[in-house]
Amino acid sequence: MDPHTTFSLPNLMCEEDDSSSNQVKLKIIQPRSEDDHYIQSLIQRETKSIDYGCLCNDDNSNNWFKCARLDTVNWIFSIREILGFNLSTAYLSLTYFDRFNSRRIIDSGKEWAIQLLGIACLSLAAKMEEQTVPLLSQFKAQGYTFESSVIQRMELLVLTTLEWKMCGITPFAYLHYFVSKICDECDCNEVLVSKAIGFVVDFSKEVSLMDHRPSVVAMAAVLLACDDQLTRSTLECKIN
User: Fold this and answer.
1) How many CB atoms lie within 10 A of CB 98?
2) Per-residue DSSP letter, 62
3) Rounded CA gap, 109 and 90, in Å?
4) Which of 29, 43, 81, 95 ranks highest by number of CB atoms within 10 Å?
5) Of 62 and 110, more confident
6) How far apart are CA 99 and CA 179, in angstroms?
7) Cα–Cα dist 164/156, whole Å
8) Burial of 110 (C-beta count, 10 Å sphere; 0-12/13-18/19+)
9) Is the whole model's pTM more than 0.85, yes or no?
10) Comparing C-alpha atoms, which of 213, 204, 221 is closest to residue 69?
């Protein structure tokens, strides 16, 4: 996909006026996640990506960064409930966040920069995933107040750093499909999906999302959710 022909700055950097809060973005219609060919295409896209499994900057492995990242992750999941965003939007924003930090170094101790980056990533993810995108002024950070123009400049920095490749894949695209394949004898698939979602969220708080591909995260979450309902022989048969 050529990012320069797919997106333009006005598409993602909405103006801060009275109409933008009610702006509706139509979602691209995707094939059903139960479709084998669709799942295969997602996995192929993951395989071609150079982001997963990359070595993060050493400076971003320090304790201060880990603490700052965890604060940002908790803020993202908290504010997404306030703003009514989908979990996939929050997760996508974290992929932007971790992709950015695998390519750029934020100076030690600049927690405000981490917070600003988190706001910009969530705002961009909302513009990709949500039908209604709130004003930038509604993305309140704990302890910091950023003007909309400052957030927009950070959005542009994120876009250029990620080469405008914003159509990310999240583990949520796989969960129902994997549950139906692995745990099809169960009559409580929705409960298992809910448990798997919880594991995905927990995972996102602990490690960089660039360490593992979304399909691997999804499968691990589903296996954990189905753990007490599968024997080793049954699991090996299903994987085969």
Assistant:
1) 23
2) S
3) 24
4) 95
5) 110
6) 28
7) 9
8) middle
9) no
10) 204
